[in-house]
Amino acid sequence: MSPLSGWRAAFRIARRDAARAKGRSALVVAMIALPVLGVTAADLTYRSALPTKAEELTAELGSADARFMSTSIGPVKLQQMPDGINWSTPEGAPDPTPEEQAKPVDVPAAFPEGSRYLTERSLPASVTTRHGITDTEISELRISDAMLRGRIELTDGAYPRKPDEIAATSDFVKASGLSVGDSVTVRGPELTYTLTGTVELPADLRADALYALPGSVIAPWQKTADRDKTILPPQPSDPKWLVKGPAGAGVTWQDILAANERGVVVKSRQVALNPPPDSEVPMSLMSSGYSTEAETTAAVLTVSAMAVLEIVLLAGPAFAVGARRSRRQLGLVGSCGGSRAQVRAVVLAGGVVLGAVGAVAGVGAGFGLTALFRPMIEDFTGNRFGELTVRPWEILAIAALGLVTGVLAALAPAIVAGRQSVLESLTGRRGTRRGSRVLPVIGVIALTAGVGVAVYGGVAGDTAFVAGGSVLAELGVLGCIPVIVGFLGRLGRRLPLTPRIALRDAARNRGRTAPAVAAVMAAVAGSVAIATYTSSSAAQHAYDFEPNLTPGTVALAAADIGADAELPRSRAAVEQNYPVSGKAADFGRVWAGSDCSVYYEEENGCGTLELVKPTGKGHSCPLKGKGAKELALRLSADEHKRMMKSPACTDENYTMVAFGTGDHKIIIGGADVLATYVKLDDPAAAKALADGTPVLLNSAYAKNGEVTLKATHLYNDRDKENRAQHPGKARTTTDRLKVYVAPDRFAATPGIRMVMPEKTAERLGLHVEDYGSFYALGRDATDAESQAAYAALDRSGNRAYLMSSNEMFRTQDDTILLILALFAGVVTLGAAAITTGLSKADAEADLTTLSAVGAPPGVRRSLSGFQCLVVALTGVLLGTVAGLVPAVALRLTDLRAALEDMRADPMQSAYTPIVMPWETVGLLALVVPVLAGLLAAGLTSSRLTLARRAG
Fold this sequence. Notes:
The protein has about 950 residues and is α+β, with helices and mostly antiparallel strands. Strand 2 (about 80) and strand 3 (about 85-90) form a beta hairpin.
C-alpha cells in the first residue's frame, strides 16, 4: 500500500476525531491560534508603525522634492552626504573668518531653474489660552499649500488664509481648551489671531504648535519691538526652504553639489532614496557604523523558540488526553493490521489538522484585530501608519510556525500511543509506570550549570553567556518539575478532602500537570526577568536623577532685581490658581557689597559672599583631586555610593544654583522654609533660627559646630546710594558663625546649603531682599491650572515666575511593569484553565465515583478550583525564581560597566541596584492564582448525572 494512502486515512480519522471532540479541538486550536494572532498583530504593527525611508522623507518634506537651508558659517564651499544630515567643509580648507561667517547666504539662488518653493521659520512664543497663558512654538508656513500634504493634515476647520488667522495642532487645542473660532494672542507684541482650524502631523501626533502665514508673526513682532524697547524682540530660527523642482526632474545630486558650492545644505527626496555611488560623493563616510542585525536576529530566534515551547507545553497535554480518549479507536487500528507508525500517524495527523486550523484562524484574527485597533495603536505610538504593511513571506512563516507547533505538540503523545499494546488499548487499561530518576538529576545539573554560566556572563560582561545560561537554567527547572509536582502530592496528607484530591491528582497525572506548570513558569519567568530589570534600571535612574526642587513643592521667585514690591500680588496669583496647600514659606536672597546681579558688567565691580569649606577628612571629597583614581580602584559599588552621598561629596560633581543665591547657596528664611521646602521637621532647628542661629544643611562646611563666612564688601561707583554709605576701599570680612547642623540626609537639598535668619545677615553687614516663596502642593497641577496661574502672574505685573518640579519620569516604567504583569497573568489563567478542563475530561470516572459514594455536589466545583490553583501557584512561584537568573546576571553586566566608568572618572556613579518588582510579583503570586481558582470553581457545574452501566 502506498504511504500516501496511509496518511490519507490518518488525516481522515484525525479530521473526524477533531469534529467529534469539539471542545478539546477548540481548546487546542485556541492555544495555537492565540500566539499566532499575537505574532501576526505584532508583525503588522511593527512593519506599519516603523516608517520607511520614503515615509520619513514625507514627514519632513511633505510632497516637496527637497529642503534647502544655509549654515552658520556663511557662503563658503561645503560637502555633504546624500542623506542631507552630515556635512562639513572640505578637508584641509581653512576655517571661515568672522567676516565670512557674517555674510548672508543667497539660498534661493541655489534652487534648480523653474522651481517653486515655500519658506519656513519658527519661534518660541507665549500665547493666551482659554485657561490663561502657555508657551508654545509658532511656525510661519503656508500649510494650505499642496506641497505640505503628507506632513501636515487638516482635521477640523480651515487652513489660515489671512495674516490674522492661525491654525493649531490637536494637542495644543486640547491642552489650551480653545476651539475653532476662538482668538489667540501672542504676548509681548499683543498680536491677536483667529483660530481657523486644527491640524495634525501624522509623524508626530503629540506635536504642540501653531501655524501662521509667512510674514504674519515675526515681522510685526519685530516692528513692535523696534518701537517699544520694553518688548523683547522675536527669536526666530534660521529660515528653511521647501522646494518643488522642475516637473519630472526633481532635485538631483548635481543640483546638490552646485548648492554646496554656495554654502547651502540640501536634503533631496530623490537623492536620499537613490543615493549616488561613493565615487561621486566628495565627503565619504569614514565608519560603517554599528549594526544590530545579528543581535536582532538572535532576539527574534530566541523569542520564537520560547513561543513554540510555550505552545507545545500548553497544547501537548490536550493531544495526550485526546490520544487516551481515542485509545480504543487506535487499538482497533492496530488490531486491523495497522503498524505502530500508522498509529503514530493518526495522532500526528491530528496535530497537523488542528495546527493548520489554528494557524489560519490566528493569522486571520491578527489581521482583523490590527485593523480594528489601528487608531488606538496609532495614538499610543504617536504616529499614523503610512499604510498597513504586509510582508507575505513573514506572514507565511508565522502560519508555518503555528502548523509546526501543532505537530510538535502532538509528537510526544504520538510516540506514547505507538508504544501501547493493542490489548491495553482495547481493554482501556492505562497501566502505571515509575517516574524517571534520570531526568531530575539532569535538571539539577542543568540548573546549577545554567546559573553558573549566567553569573559568569554577568561578571565578565558577556550577554551571550547570560542568555545561554538563563535558557539552560530554565530548562533545568523544567526537568525538575515532574519531581516537584510529585512532591506536591505528599503535602496533601493533612489537608481537607478537595485540596488533597487536587494535589494527588496533579501528582498522579504528571504528564498533564507538568507541561501546564512549565508553561506558566516560562511565561512568568520572562515577565519577572523583564520586570526586575526594568524596576532595577528605574531605581538606578531615580538615584542618578538630580531634582530641581524637593518633592511636592513649587517655588515662586522674583523674575528680576527689585521685584520684591510686586511679590504680594504674585503670591496671591499663585495661591488663587495653583493647587497649593498650607501657607507660603517666604524666603529672601543675601549678598555683600554691590549686588552682582546688577553690577556684573565690569570685572571686580561688585561684592562677593562665600561659605568657606574646610579641608581634611569629612570636609574634602576624596573622590576628587589627587589620589582619587587610585582610591576608586579599591572601592566597591556600595562603598562608592556611600562616599558619593556623603556631605563632603554631595555638591562637588553637580550643584544647582537657584533662588537668587549664587554659589554660596544661602537663603534668608525661617522655620516655615525648613518645614515646607527642606522637609526638616525639627523643633530644635526652628528654635535655632528664631534665636538668630543659621541652620546648615551640609555638615561638610561646619567645623566644631561653626562655619566660616567670607565676604568682600566692594561697592561700585555706579551704586551711588550704597557707595555714599560705604566710602573708601573694599574690605573683606571673615566671620565664624555658630550654626545648627542638620542631619546628613539634608545635604542634597536642591538649591540650598544654609538657611540664615534675616537679623543675622543684617548684623554681619550683608544686604537682604525678599525674593519669593515656597509652597507645598496638594497634588500635581493640571494644564488648565498652570495656564491660569501664568496668566494671573502676568496680570500682577509679570515680575515673578513659577518653578515646578521636573521629577515626572517613571510613569512609562510603571506602564511596562503593568503590561508584563497582565501578560503573565493571562497566560497563567489560560494554562490553569486548560489543565483544569483536561483534568475534568480525564478524570470523569473519578468524579462519578465521588458522586456515587455520596460526595456533596459542591465537591466537584471546589475540586476544579483547587486543581486550577495548584497549577497556577506552582508555575508562578517557579517562574519567579527562574526569572531572577537572567535579571540578576544582566544587572551584574551593568555593574561591571558602571565600575569601569567610575574608575575612569571617580565622580561617576557606580550604583547598580537589583530591585524586586514586588507589585508585579504579588499580583502574579497572590491575585492571579486565587482568581484562577475562583473562576474555575465558578464556571464548573456542580451537577453530575450518574451513568448507568449497560446490561
